[in-house]
Amino acid sequence: MSTSTDRPEPEATPLALSRDGRPVSDRGDTVCVIGAGPSGLTAVKNLKEHGFGVDCYERETGVGGAWNWRHDRSPVYASTHLISSRPFTQFPDFPMPDSWPDYPHHSQLLGYFERYADHFDLRSHIWFGTEVIRVEPVEGDRWDVTTRSTGGYGPERTSRYAAVVVANGHNWSPKLPRYEGLAEFRGEVMHASSYKDPAQLRGKRVLVVGAGNTGCDIAVEAAQQASRCWHSTRRGYWYAPKYVLGRPADQVNDALLALRVPLRVRQWLYHWTLRLTVGDLTRFGLPAPDHRVYETHPIANSQLVYHVGHGTIMPVPDVARFGPYGVELTDGRHIDPELVVFATGYLPRFEFLDPKVLGDDSGTGRPTLWLNAFAVGHPTLAVVGLLQPDSGVFTLAHWQSVLFARLLDARRTRPERAAAFAAATTARAGERYSGQVKDSSRHWFEVGHADYLRAVQRALDSLEGK
Asked: What is the fold, at CATH topology level, of the domain defined by 176-344?
């Protein structure tokens, strides 16, 4: 495995100077990719195929990003499986084995990314154990990228690049709620990012807060391992089974999308299917959803309703406040958990970039991008993988990076089309690629994969003059 300490320094032209007088190694037309997770890997691969030199910086010691459970920032736990099925998750030019299950385990995913990196000879472009601490735009749409060894050891080093791909992921910085009295609570409190194994739940009275896919998974494991499990949600959700009509649910949904079945008809079919299978979930004590299906990211879990129906998961409303030895709920009930798990999601963080570069003028952490990838006024910068699709994300990240590679190529060979692309970025930044969705941080990056891929195809056609 290559590391930043056992390979030669990248070749560069003589030193330039940064704005504050620091020496800068000019990397010419080379592109910098930040992160060697799935999105970073496909960016490196597609930039290489389009003839660009690439330097990729990865803060950890291996590829895989969030799917590498050895990494400090990985949210993966022992039982993690895909929630999108294999054909709708794999890279389009590197299929997963047909012998794999419909929903592969995280260890299989990591092996898949390692083989992808080896097959396309990507490791020789990756500087492992190297973190990016600063990315600054400079004249001529170029970028100064400052790096150092992970953990802050060793000197900083600044290199100048023709373009930058940000692929640092958005599921690693925990979003923690604030509750009255939480600081005085004497039980154990943890975020789901720290959850790794059911042994952490065994024999305890557990309260799981949050109804995302991770929260539901942890609640199901608590139902089997804990002495008692409460599952707290602020609102009602639609719980999608992983299989419908004998097929993975996302494959059935995609068939309807391919037939251009209108949203309202798909919503009716979904409700009809639920009525035939699990019926009215409010009879179990689950709150009624306050939105129509497909207006939030789907909760893909076939076991939650089973355990609620068997009484091993107790649905409860939101937390009102904490006391030293218990929790008061918004309906006035009191419960006494020993362990509280906040499965309350993550917030995007681009700590090496000025937020305004990505159009975050409000300071909320939410970028304003076209196609969830391209920033206004910065045509040589792209964010890859900042998506929450109704299917797998890797296919979408692949096409994002293909689009960026062709944009960079157009800047050299078809500048008028690249200029039109930049104008479209300005006009369409913040455009949505899904139906009506809830306005919460959890749904900031929600896209319908079919609509999104059509939009990417239109952008590719515009660069080709079609």
From this structure: FAD/NAD(P)-binding domain (3.50.50)
